[in-house]
Every structure is written in C-alpha cells, then in structure tokens.
Amino acid sequence: MKLIAIDGDHTLWEPASGVNLSDRSPTDDEGRPDFTYTPNNDNPLVIERDDGALFTLRPEARDVLSELRSRGALTGLLSYNHEGNVRRALEAFGVGRLFDYMVAEWHTNKDRMLEKMIAMARCDGRALDAGDVLLVDDDPDDIYAGQCKRMGVRFCRFGVDVRDLREVLRLLSG
C-alpha cells in the first residue's frame, strides 16, 4: 500500500460526547461547518469543541501515523464531515502535520472522496492507482466497503478487521 486513508469519527478519534465532529445532535442531517476545537490541558488525547463536546484521539494514532510516514507511506484523512472542522480538530489534536492529504465532505460518497485524494497525490507527482490505496473506516452503514470494492481500493473495517490502528502497520506491504 502506498496511501493509507483513515476515517475520522469512530476510527482516528472517538466522539466521547455522543455526537460526531460536525454534528449538532446525534441525528443531525446538516451539521455545522464552523465549530472550533481546543486541546484539553489535562489530557493530550482529548479536544473540546466550543459547545463542550469532547473527542478522544486513539492513543496509538500519533505513533502509527509517524511510523507509516517513516515507512514511506502517504497518509490521508477521509471523513464525512465539514472540512474546516476536520482541519481544526486535527490541529487541536496536534496531528495535522502527520497527514499528506485530507478530504472531508458532507456526504457518504467516500468513493468520490477517495478519487479526489488519489487525484491530489497524482498532482503531487505520485504514481498512484486505486489498488495502491487502503481505506480504514468503521463503515457504520455498511456502504464504504462496497464503494471501495467497485473502485479497486483495499478496505479494512475498523472495529471488525482491526481493533487498534497499530494493526494497520502489518497491512502496509500487503
């Protein structure tokens, strides 16, 4: 694998307050694009949204992202969220610099997001095809695995195929 794309909510971070990064409520169909996030002074894995919602970065995330990059893999964040919120959250977690690419859009078409990410890498001069990409996602509605299969992207379901991001490291050469 040349590019490892990782989902946000329930994969890279856990929504500790019951709402996803851009959601105003658990059933929000629109989201809010302008939340702000600040690091928690007591716990470097926790960020707080301006409305008090908390998000917890997986404890292994920083080490895994650093290791992927040291092995020469490109890293991407792919998320059904508003882009500005994702960028601000990654910075608050202190991991923004560990991602080569980020695509976040308010829809469930992660195949379109992956196509954009692959195009971004190609524009940077990377020889990258769909078969060179792995998406790690919790896929709560069981749709992303099928999208990946149709486009030839390898898929790994977080919480089922792997339960810890460190397990992704063994898939890098596969």
General description of the model:
By secondary structure, this protein is of the alpha/beta class. It has a single domain (about 5-15, about 60-170), classed as Rossmann fold (3-Layer(aba) Sandwich), CATH 3.40.50.1000. It has helices spanning about 60-70, 85-95, 110-125, 145-150, and strands spanning about 5, 15, 35-40, 45-50, 55, 75-80, 100-105, 135, 155.
Helix content: 10-25%
What's the overall average pLDDT, rounded?
96
Question: Count the strands?
Answer: 9
CATH homologous superfamily, by name?
HAD superfamily/HAD-like
How does CATH name the architecture?
3-Layer(aba) Sandwich
The largest sheet has its strands arranged as: 7-6-1-8-9
Instruction: Classify the secondary structure makeup into a structural class.
Output: alpha/beta
User: pLDDT below 50 for ≥5 consecutive residues: which ranges?
Assistant: none
